[in-house]
Fold this sequence. Notes:
Blueprint: E1 2-4, E2 21-27, H1 31-44, E3 49-55, H2 57-65, E4 72-74, H3 78-86, E5 95-100, E6 102-107, E7 127-130, H4 135-150, H5 157-162, E8 165-169, H6 172-180, E9 186-190, E10 202-206, E11 215-221, H7 228-239, H8 241-249
Parallel strand pairs: 2-3, 2-4, 7-8, 7-9
Antiparallel strand pairs: 1-3, 4-11, 5-11, 6-9, 6-10
Amino acid sequence: MGGCGPAAGAAKPEAGGAESSVVVFAASSLTDAFREIAALYEERYPGSRVQYQFGGSSQLRLQLEQGAEADVFVPASLEQMEQARAAGLVRDPVQIFARNRLVIIAPAGNPAGIVSLEDLARPGVRLVTAAPEVPIGAYTLEMLDRADQDGAFGAGFKERVLANVVSRELNVRQVVAKVRLGEADAAVVYASDVTPDVRPHVGVVEVPGAYNVTAAYPIAVLNHAPNPAGAQDFVDLALGPEGRRVLETWGFLPAAGGEP
Length: 260
């Protein structure tokens, strides 16, 4: 698990803050933004510490179902949160705190000449994606379904794209790494994954709005949270203006609502 230490010279904690750890299971696409939010939390509540487990949302949910202890669950899809809710893992309210959109990335130099969504179906293109149960994998399939039903790219577009898949990774950060290293010609990822660190190593191709899919990020306190007060403080920070500013800085879209 990753963690961030308390900030020096921070103000006295507010009433809800506890001098203890808050353990957050979060989708890997939130890594950079949530590390920054952790620093804000630890500054607000001196002596506290945010510990993260980042990974594929489906994997994190399974770990929780198998008894892993955590305070907050933050998957990259409502489907994974609903499965957690059905298993009795999370308490209401479940709230949407951010959204995302899909883009195509290619390695620097773009050796396969990927300039459009249609190019993903070209024979010989090496496409990397995630397993269908991982949110980015599911969103990619939904995008391909939309394009397939439209018919603009010819019959069997989805099938032709999937025939080019050379690897299915466990989370979106692993997908990005494969492209960044030149081990694949293209991938579909979240817009927020093209971070300042990644951008020099990849090219970005936009997904047409008619086929794009908006990813919703829900957040909730876990039913058996060891630190429920600290968990709620973390949720409140992520939902509040400071958390929104951080998320937008890292390329996430506003929640535009809150309730699923």
